[in-house]
């Protein structure tokens, strides 16, 4: 038996196709846009509408934090499928 056969079978990872990565990317993009808009186009009229709160800035920062949590979750607990029992027998 050689080293390749005696090693534990490798798991297949979803990587970029993991739905958590896609969600993190989309929420992160929207969060960046909202944060920039909150920093750049903050007017007194907008603050009156929101009760003197910069809603774009805080929503953007919250979305960036949520995206970071999704990305961290995908990194720490990657999805994978264990090889089927018949996969080890195939050459």
TrEMBL record:
It comes from the Bacteria. It comes from Streptomyces smaragdinus. Keywords: Membrane, Transmembrane, Transmembrane helix. The keyword Transmembrane applies. The chain crosses the membrane at residues 21-40, 55-76. This is Uncharacterized protein.
């Amino acid at each position: 038996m050689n080293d390749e056969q005696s090693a534990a079978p490798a798991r297949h990872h979803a990587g970029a196709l993991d739905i958590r990565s896609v969600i993190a990317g989309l929420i992160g993009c929207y969060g960046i846009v909202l944060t920039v808009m909150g920093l750049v186009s903050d007017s007194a009229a907008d603050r009156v509408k929101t009760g003197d709160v910069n809603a774009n800035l805080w929503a953007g920062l919250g979305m960036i934090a949520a995206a970071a949590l999704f990305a961290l979750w995908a990194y720490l607990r990657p999805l994978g499928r264990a090889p089927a029992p018949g996969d080890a027998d195939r050459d």
